[in-house]
Structure formats: structure tokens, C-alpha cells
Amino acid sequence: MTEKVRDQDKTHFGYKDVNPDDKEKLVAGVFHSVADSYDMMNDLMSMGVHRIWKRFTVELSAVRKGHHVLDIAGGTGDLTKQFSRLVGDTGRVVLADINESMLRVGRDRLIDQGIVGNVEYVQANAECLPFPENTFDCITIAFGLRNVTDKDEALRSMCRVLKPGGRLLVLEFSKTNNPLLTKAYDAYSFSLLPFMGKLVAGDSESYRYLAESIRKHPDQETLKAMMKEAGFVNNTYHNMTGGIVALHKGIKP
Ligand SMILES: C[S@@+](CC[C@H](N)C(=O)[O-])C[C@H]1O[C@@H](n2cnc3c(N)ncnc32)[C@H](O)[C@@H]1O
Questions:
Q1: Atom of ligand 1 nearest to the CA of 103
Q2: What is d(CA 47, CA 229) in angstroms, rounded to the nearest whole number?
Q3: CB–CB of 129/98 below 8 Å?
Q4: What is the DSSP letter of 73?
Q5: Fewest Cβ atoms closer than 10 Å to its Cβ: which of 67, 100, 139, 225?
Q6: 173-196: pLDDT as tens digits
Q7: For 36, how many CA atoms within 13 A lie in the half-sphere containing its CB?
Q8: 43-55 as b/e, with b when 16 or more CB fall inside 10 Å?
């Protein structure tokens, strides 16, 4: 992977301030640790609701037969699987992720489910996507952006490899504006989540990071402004589950 020169002194890893060059390694540690239990934990933690958030993402993507789709930070391939069916034999889906453990689990899982022929697996950092300009009709990044060290760089990189008129969809945890929901959600995230992580994945720290990284992620309006700054137009977002999750959409002009 290419060495990048970082222009920030510090960044966040959950609630900790760390050197930008260390964040990548720390995030890698989290996903190496959780890869094998990731799918089970996803269903448990969200009580299956992540499937509804993802289904809405696929609906809004307007992906159809023959399209080229990049699912960056694609992990174990939930979105890739649905896109593979939609693009058919004449289309292509690239499942890209920085982490080889997540890619391995995703590739094995999709092959086991018979998803073959139009899916490629690429180890890549969202900040410097190894694809030519104007390659994809649609790019998705689901629950990935908050883990990326330089989010602005990643958004610019995504804009570069999208075709003009192509769509970026960012599905990510966001901010609730209901004080009661926020209270319940905080209690759940900081007590129950690490406990479940310990029980199921034998790792409470990674799930504490998950809760902290969500709180540190830019809110809806900030992310919308960042997408505009990176070159996207017609930027909109939809809150889901009271704003616990938001789906952002932007178009490459
Ligand atoms: C929470 S998982 C999401 C996986 C999948 N998209 C989903 O929704 O189930 C976050 C993924 O982001 C990946 N990731 C973290 N930093 C990344 C980066 N800089 N570039 C690409 N992928 C990254 C992790 O390896 C991990 O697989």
C-alpha cells in the first residue's frame, strides 16, 4: 500500500487521541479480532435491523443490470451480495476492504452462497483507491467511513473513481436528536455492547471502540458538508431509526 504523508498531528481512535499513522494499525487490530464473529454480532447488536438499513441503501442505489459497483469497506459482503444479483452477468461488483481478515471471511461466505462470476475482491484503503478515474456507476461505504483516518481524502478518492452522474452512498451511524433515545442508546452502547462483545467474540475492547467511534463520527450536516467539499452535488441524507443511522447520498457532477 502506498505511504501517505499525513497533514494532521492527531486523530481519534474512539475517545483516544492517536497519531494518524497509528490509527490504521489500531483499526486493523479491531477488525482482525472481530472478523470471524462479525456477522453474528451484527445481527445480535442491531437485533437484525442492519438488514433493513442495508436494504434501503440498495433501493436508493438504483443499481441495475450491467452496472459497475464498488462496495468499499465491504467487509463480509452484505451489500456486495445484493449488488451481485442486481448487476447480473454483464455487470461487476468490487468488494474492497483494507483488512485481509474481513476480506477472507467475506469472500468465503459469498462463494459458499454461490455468489461467483461477477465479484472481485481487492485489498484497498478508501483513502487511495487503486482504480482509474470514472470507473464506477455507484460506490457504497457502509459502516466504514468512521474507521477511516482521513475521511476527506477518502471522499475525494471515491469522487475520482466514480463516473460522472455516479452515486456515492454512505451508510453510517449518526446522531439522534431525541434526548430519550440518546440516553437509552448511550446506556446500550457503553454497557451492553462491550458485554455482548466479551461474551460472543471474547473481545469487549473492540466493541467499546465501536461505541466510541460512533460518538466521534461527524453528524449528518457535517458529513453532508464534507461530501460537498469533496466534489459531490445534490447531497442529501435520510435518517433511519431516529437518526441512529443515516444514509447520505451524493452525485459526482
Ligand atoms: C463495521 S465494518 C463494515 C462492513 C460492511 N460494510 C458492513 O456493513 O457490514 C467496517 C469495515 O471497514 C473496513 N475499513 C476500515 N478502515 C478502512 C479503510 N481505510 N479503507 C477500507 N476499508 C476500511 C474494516 O476493515 C471493516 O471491514
A1: 27
A2: 35
A3: no
A4: T
A5: 225
A6: 999 989 999 989 888 888 888 888
A7: 5
A8: ebbeeeebeebbe
Indicate which atom in ligand 1 lies nearest the CA of residue 35.
Answer: 27
**pTM for the model:** 0.94
Neighbours of 183 (CB within 10 A): 11
DSSP string, 120-152: EEEE--GGG--S-TT-EEEEEEES-GGG-S-HH
Query: How sure is the predictor about 22, in pLDDT bands with cuts at 50, 70 and 90?
Result: confident
The C-alpha torsion from 153 through 1 and 18 to 237, rounded to 10°, is: 30
Grid coordinates of 146: 468512521
Domain extents in the chain? 8-177+207-251
User: What length does the chain have?
Assistant: 253
3-state secondary structure of 237: strand
Instruction: Determine the distance separating the centroid of ligand 1 and the alpha carbon of 74, expressed in angstroms.
Output: 6
CA-CA distance, 251 to 232, in Å (whole number)? 5
End-to-end CA distance of the chain: 29
- Give, in words, the CATH class of 8-177+207-251: alpha beta
Q: Which residues line ligand 1 (CB under 6 A)?
A: 27, 31, 72-76, 78, 97-99, 102, 125-127, 142-144, 147-148
- Give the β-pairing of 11-13 and 68-72: unpaired
Biggest CA pair distance of the chain: 48
Closest by CA to 184, choosing from 111, 127, 241, is 241
